[in-house]
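Fold it.
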Amino acid sequence: MAEVVILGAGIGGVPMAYEMKEELRKEDNLTVISNNSYFQFTPSNPWAAVGWRSKKDITIDLAPVMKKKGIN
């Protein structure tokens, strides 16, 4: 059994976690560690700043998404 840890859940860490999960065996564990409990699509921040999108539109709570994919 392998224990894989990804540091960071930003624009690089989240896609890496999804891809890594597909490559791991069923008995392997994948954990993502982040200083935030959410993912925010950084390239969309200017849209929120000028009112084209709200923070809610560009932010995703990571816990339910990761749990659904079997990622700790």
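The radius of gyration is 14 Å.
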